[in-house]
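Handout, section B. The chain below has 156 residues.
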Amino acid sequence: MALETKIKKLRKHTARRNFFDVVRYAFRIFAHQSSIVLGSAWAFAGAVLVILVWVLTGPTFHFSDTWQLVINTATTVVTFLMVFLIQNTQNRDTKAVQLKLDELIRAIKSARNELVDLENLSDDELKKLEKQFQDLRQKAEHRVKHSRDVEPAQSR
C-alpha cells in the first residue's frame, strides 16, 4: 500500500509540475509575441486612435463621469497587465545578455573568469569591483596622458 501511495503522490506531483511548465511556456510565448506586437509603431498608432475616439465622444456623452471612468479603467487594466509583460521580457533579455557576456569572458584567455555570474554578487562586492575598474580606468587615462606628453618631445 505504501508503494501505491508514493506512486500516486509522484504522479500528482508530475502532473502539477507539467501543468506549471505548460503555463510557464505559454506565458513566455505570449509575452514574447505581445512585446513584438505592442512594441510596434502600429500599436502606438492604435493607442492614439483609441484616445482620439474617446476624446471625440466626450461631447456626445456630455463629458460624464462614466465617460471618464471608461478610459481610466481601461488604461489602468492595460497598464497593470503590461507591467508583467514588460518585466518578463526584460528578465529574459537580461538573462540572455548575461549568458552572452559570460561566454565572452570564458572565451577570452586574458579575461578574469571571476567576472562570470557577477549578477549573483552582493551590492558590497559589486561596489568593490566597481572601485577596481575605476582605478584601472584612472591608471589607463594617466598612462595615455603621459604618453601624449612624451610623444611630441620624442618626435622633435
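Note. The chain has four helices and no strands. Compare this with the example in section A.
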